[in-house]
Structures are given as structure tokens and as C-alpha cells.
Amino acid sequence: QAIFCLLLCVPWGSSCPRSCQCTERAGAKAVLCSSRHLEEIPKDIPKDAVFLKLDANSITRIPSNAFRHLSHLEELDLSRNAIEKIDRAAFKGVAAGLRTLDLSSNRIRSIPKEALLALNAKLRLANNPWHCECALQEVLWEARLDPDSVQDITCHTAPREEYVGKPLLQVLDAGVNFCSVRQRTTDVAMFITMFGWFTMVIVYVICYVRHNREDTCKHVDYLKSLPSTQGHAE
């Protein structure tokens, strides 16, 4: 009877990662892996997890499909890690149901906009060493950012020194458009390339004409040097 009762108490197909604690919160499963010295996302997170806390660890990367099997996931906390790279498909499979995603206080300089723009979750991106560029601007405009943390999205590096250290929102409010800057740079590069090709064509034509002119002159001089037909007749 004791063994039978024990089997009834074990949650079948819902094991908990060894370094984490699994508990119930308002009838939903919460997986707590905070401050466990993790360097990567655990592979054996229960599929029925609704709340997942991975904060205060040493995770450096969010690979593609890292949470794909967690179809019930609603809240994901990845704050206070050492995340530097986030793959384009990092949140594939949880984009529709995720309500909150915390990526604050990491080492993120840039992020593929495809990784975030598919999410309906409220995002926290504060306190990262952001490089202010077009992709980050598009995220700020189109993603659902937590309004309480927007002011803490600061330009750690930027195309112009005057933007460094300022909140990205403040820079954009001043009329700066990083996407148009990139477009102008692309246009200039295309213009320079086209000008280079045009110059090469002109130089080729000039050389070709000059070479033909020299050959013609040599041929004329050669003809002049030949004895005339009249001289032979006499």
C-alpha cells in the first residue's frame, strides 16, 4: 500500500531538472532555476511548465528552438545572466503564448529583430550594452516593451559619439533615424561602386581608341615608306 501511494504522488512524465525546483503556482507549474550557476538552458524542463525562472545564472547564449517543447510557457525570466547571442529562432514554438520575457541585465549588444518581433510578450531589455542601430530601433517601435524599463535601454555604442550613454528613446525622440542612416550609407556605397565601374569603362574606351590610333599611324607610316607604283613603272 505504501508503494502504491508513492506511485500516485509521483507526477508522471513531468520530471524536474536536477538543478531546479518545480512547484505549483495557482494551479500552474513553475520551474525555478534561479542562481544555480547554469551555463546553458536545461534540456529536461517539464513540458507543462508555465513559469520558468532562469535568472542570475551564467547563460551566454539562447540557441534556436531552446524552448520549443514548452508550449504552455507564459513567463520566462532570463535576466542577470551573461547572454551575448540570441539566435533568430531562439523563441520559436513559444511565441504565441508567451506573455512576459525578461532579458534585462545581460551582455546583449544586438539581437536579430526576427527573434523578438514574432513575440506577443511584454519585453524587458534594460541594462544591456546595446549598440544603437536600425534593428534595435525597429524592435523599439514594433515590439511590446515594458514601459517601466524603456528608459533604461541605453546606447552603449552608436554611429555617433554624441548618442553614447543616452537612452535610445531620447535619441529617437530627437529625430534620429538609424534606419535612414543605414539607407544613406548603402546608397553612397552603391554610387561609389557604380562610379568606379563607369570610370573603368571610360578608361578602357580611351585606351582602346588610343591603341587603335597608334596602330593606324604605324600602318600609314608603313604604307608611306613603301616604293610607289609610279616609281616602279619608270
Automatic annotation (TrEMBL):
Transmembrane domains' residue ranges: 188-209
Q: What InterPro entries does the record tag this protein with?
A: Leu-rich_rpt, Leu-rich_rpt_typical-subtyp, LRR_dom_sf, LRR_TM_domain-containing, LRRNT
The UniProt entry, under SUPFAM superfamilies, shows: L domain-like
Positions in coiled-coil regions = none
The chain positions of domain LRRNT read 15-51
Q: Which UniProt keywords apply?
A: Leucine-rich repeat, Membrane, Repeat, Signal, Transmembrane, Transmembrane helix
Q: How does it sit in the membrane?
A: Single-pass membrane protein
Recorded GO cellular component terms are: plasma membrane
One Pfam family name is LRR_1
Protein name per the record: Leucine-rich repeat-containing protein 3
The organism named in the record is Pluvianellus socialis
Q: What is the lineage of its organism?
A: Eukaryota, Metazoa, Chordata, Craniata, Vertebrata
> Gene name on record?
Lrrc3
